[in-house]
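This protein record is not my work; I was only asked to verify it. Would you go through it and say whether the fold makes sense for this chain? Here is the record exactly as it was handed to me.
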Amino acid sequence: MEWIQIRFDDNLGTRVHHAALRAGQPMGAHIRDVLDVAVRPGEGAFGYKGPKHPHALQAYLAHDFAYASGWDDLQEVLRAKGYELAERGGGLILQTTEGERLCKASQIGQPYSA
């Protein structure tokens, strides 16, 4: 487990403390649980709920494609949002981590050659 330090303003710290008490957890455990859910939107009980149309996907993922330091980094960031790239028919597709095909990578401005 990695240790981090988080600073809250007084109001946010109080609200987080009260939320942890309502959940019956220590503050650190509550924060970990909330963050764990937040970084795995595609794994919720009701399935993936993010954008699925090419234009919305292009806008939603543009920063991730632009700032990825390599293939593994890009895949990790996409998976955290519930997506992944996969090779299909001589190109790349974008799909949910549950395997639902969404579009060709070229439809969101990310051709296979790039």
About this structure: Residues 10-23 form the longest helix (14 residues). The chain has a mean pLDDT of 85. Strands lie at 83-88, 91-96, 101-104. The chain is about 45% helix and 15% strand.
